[in-house]
Specification:
1 helix, 7 strands, about 110 residues, about 35% strand, alpha+beta, 4-stranded antiparallel β-sheet
Length: about 110
């Protein structure tokens, strides 16, 4: 459950499968694949979760009207650049776990 008063549309979630751990919040998610060591993969996922909860990472999503064009994560205060497959958008949505870095930027 996200903290009260935040503008997150989706809470923090953690999903597991045989060969990966998926972690996400708001409109972003990340896949941590088990390449060699399951323990190392779980450690990477836990470090990402801690970065989210301590607001060292923000979720960034690009929108055209009400259509999601893509999402990524970034460091708070950085200028988010859309990933290569995102071409047309009119708004950038930035959300952090506690809301300290939330922004909506019109393009």
């Amino acid at each position: 459950m996200p903290p009260s008063g935040t503008k997150l549309e989706r809470p923090l979630f953690i999903l597991t499968a045989i060969d990966e751990v998926e972690v996400g919040f708001d409109h972003y998610h990340n896949h941590f694949e088990v390449l060699v060591d399951l323990g190392e993969t779980i450690q990477q996922a836990l470090e990402f979760i801690l970065d989210v909860l301590e607001e060292r990472v923000v979720a960034v999503s690009w929108w055209s009207d009400t259509s999601l064009r893509g999402a990524s994560c970034a460091k708070p205060g950085s200028q988010p650049e859309p990933v290569d497959h995102i071409h047309s958008y009119d708004r950038v949505r930035i959300r952090s776990w506690l809301g300290h870095f939330d922004q909506d930027i019109d393009n």
